[in-house]
Each structure stands twice: as structure tokens, then as C-alpha cells.
Design goal:
Layout lengths: L1 H24 L9 H12 L19 H11 L44 E5 L2 H9 L2 H4 L4 E3 L7 H8 L5 E5 L4 H13 L4 E6 L2 H6 L27 H8 L11 H13 L15 H4 L3 E3 L6 E3 L13
Parallel strand pairs: 1-2, 1-3, 3-4
Antiparallel strand pairs: 5-6
Helix pairs in contact: 1-2, 1-3
């Protein structure tokens, strides 16, 4: 009987945490979000590590198993803003931009002559779910930037040609703070030769600065020489040790509102400064998730030992 009562109390605690997470995940406005984003939001409700001073590096473990979250989600019922699971990818000979507003899935442009224009920017996400979330919130429209998932590689040659027609065209890469995620930037460079490729992150220093929930997987053997899992030289010893220990942080562990705001700022580039606490975000185009605003307009604060003038995984 005691175990049953304890389980009931635990379920009620999780149910309340999930209800709070649902309200937070969709705020402000009506943001669309993924199931894993909701899970990480629930983790932040149960373990509010974001309240710890940012100068203290921290990547806490999940306070609740994903299976318990799924049980609470089934008890909760329908969740406004929650995206349905991605359908199984259908085989395709030439992946196309994910621009269909109704299905939010990758589709080919309806007008073939669109390929005749220059393409100044493009975004590739390691996770298809993250790509779908960005599309569902119209990032591709607001930033005038096609959005792809990593499994859409190689890109349609016509898209690569469009990038080549614009001086300074950039392919942005949004990936997890993991060995495979960081290696994705190199894969994209190989897929779009001659085009600038810029990593938005995440890398371990971003995860520790933002206090992201960090699960632990098997220990990793990091490559020392050239190879698919060779890490950039800009990663510090502590970051390498963090990765070698099997730690990782998913892009979906960033709160939905912060992720949307950061992606839009990075992809669109700097804007005319305004008198607001968010003025400092104009430098995020090159700083990734490292730099965040202080309480003074026009001022920014850098996390880690590197200056915020260059993305740590760009080189």
C-alpha cells in the first residue's frame, strides 16, 4: 500500500510539472514544439538549473526518465502546440527544401525557375525534428532561408549552384553538442564545396554556459588524426574530456523560444541596434550560443575563454 501511495504522489508531481512545462514551451505566443523539447522543459521545471548563476558551468543529468515523461504525457492528453512525430522518410532521388506550409515537410519548389536565382543562405539541422519545428514556426519564411535535415544530404545540385551565385553565401549548421553533431559541419563542407559553412553550435561550452540538461551515453574514443570524428582544434581540453566521457546535449534541450530567437538572429545577420536588452544579440551571427545579453543595451557577455568574435567550431 505504501509503495502504491508513493507512486501516486510521484505521478501527481510529474503531472503538475508537465502542465507547467506545456505552458512554458509554447510561450510567448503560440510556439510549436517537439515532444523532446517538452520533455526537456519538464526537466527544467523539476530541476531549475537555469536559476544557477551562468558563470558556474553546469550540465545536469535528466531528473526524470523519458519513459516516465511519456506516461505523464499520455495521462495529460492533447497538448496545444505539440508537433506530431515525423513520418518515416520516403525514398527520394533529389531532396528538396522543406517549404510546404501545409505539410511542413520537405517539398520541391513549385516553380522550377526558382533554381535560377542566387541563394544567400541555407540551414541544415542535425535533427529532422528540429528542422520540422523551425518550419512549423515559419523560420524559413521570416529568415528567407530553406531548412533541411542532415539526412537530406547530398543537396540538390541546383541548390548548391544557387549558393555559388551569391558572394558570401552561407550554409548554417545546427547540431547537438556531441561527437557526431560536431562532425556534421565537416560533412556539410564536403557536400557544398566552395561555399562558406558556419556552425551555430552546440558545442560543450555552450551546453555548460546555458546549463543544458545533459544525458550520458557510452564513453567515446576521439580521433587524433584526420577522420570523420576528428574534433575541431578550437575545442578546449575540458570540452574534449566532456565529450569523451559520453556526455551530450541536444539542440532540443534549448527552450523553444530561445532556439527560435537565436536561429533567426544568426541566420538573418545583424540588424540596426535598438534600445532593448536584446541589442547584444546582433553579434550572435558569429558567436553561436556563446554570447548572451547583459542588462545594458548594446553590451554582451561572453561565456568561456574565447572571445565572441568567432564561432568556436567554425574552423
Amino acid at each position: 500500500m505504501t509503495a502504491r501511495v508513493a507512486a501516486s504522489i510521484g505521478d501527481r508531481l510529474l503531472d503538475r510539472a508537465l502542465a507547467t512545462a506545456v505552458a512554458r514551451a509554447g510561450a510567448p505566443g503560440r510556439i510549436r514544439f517537439t515532444e523532446r523539447q517538452l520533455y526537456y522543459e519538464m526537466c527544467r521545471v523539476l530541476r531549475p538549473s537555469h536559476a544557477v548563476p551562468r558563470r558556474l558551468p553546469l550540465t545536469p543529468a535528466p531528473p526524470v526518465r523519458y519513459e516516465r515523461f511519456e506516461e505523464a504525457l499520455r495521462r495529460h492528453g492533447a497538448v496545444p502546440g505539440l508537433l506530431a512525430p515525423a513520418p518515416a522518410p520516403a525514398p527520394a532521388s533529389a531532396p528538396a527544401p522543406a517549404s510546404d506550409h501545409a505539410s511542413r515537410e520537405p517539398t520541391a519548389p513549385s516553380a522550377p525557375d526558382l533554381y535560377d536565382y542566387g541563394l544567400p543562405r541555407l540551414l541544415i539541422c542535425q535533427s529532422r525534428q528540429v528542422a520540422r519545428m523551425l518550419l512549423a514556426n515559419d523560420v524559413h519564411l521570416e529568415a528567407a532561408c530553406p531548412v533541411f535535415a542532415a539526412d537530406d544530404l547530398p543537396l540538390d545540385p541546383r541548390l548548391v549552384a544557387g549558393l555559388g551565385r551569391v558572394d558570401g553565401a552561407t550554409v548554417h549548421v545546427l547540431h547537438d553538442a556531441s561527437v557526431d553533431g560536431i562532425a556534421l559541419t565537416g560533412r556539410v563542407r564536403d557536400a557544398v564545396p566552395g561555399v562558406r559553412v558556419s556552425s551555430m553550435g552546440l558545442v560543450p561550452r555552450h551546453a555548460t554556459a546555458l546549463h543544458l540538461i545533459s544525458p550520458r551515453g557510452p564513453a567515446q574514443v576521439l580521433a587524433q588524426g584526420p577522420g570523420p570524428l576528428t574534433l575541431p582544434a578550437a575545442l578546449g581540453p575540458r570540452e574534449r574530456d566532456w565529450l569523451a566521457d559520453g556526455r551530450f546535449a541536444e539542440v532540443e534541450s534549448v527552450s523553444p523560444a530561445r532556439l527560435l530567437r537565436t536561429v533567426l538572429r544568426l541566420v538573418r545577420g545583424p540588424r540596426t541596434p535598438g534600445h532593448s536588452v536584446w541589442t547584444g544579440l546582433r553579434e550572435l551571427r558569429t558567436a553561436g550560443f556563446m554570447t548572451w545579453p547583459t542588462n545594458r543595451p548594446g553590451d554582451t557577455r561572453t561565456q568561456g575563454d574565447q572571445p565572441a568574435t568567432r564561432n568556436p567550431v567554425q574552423g
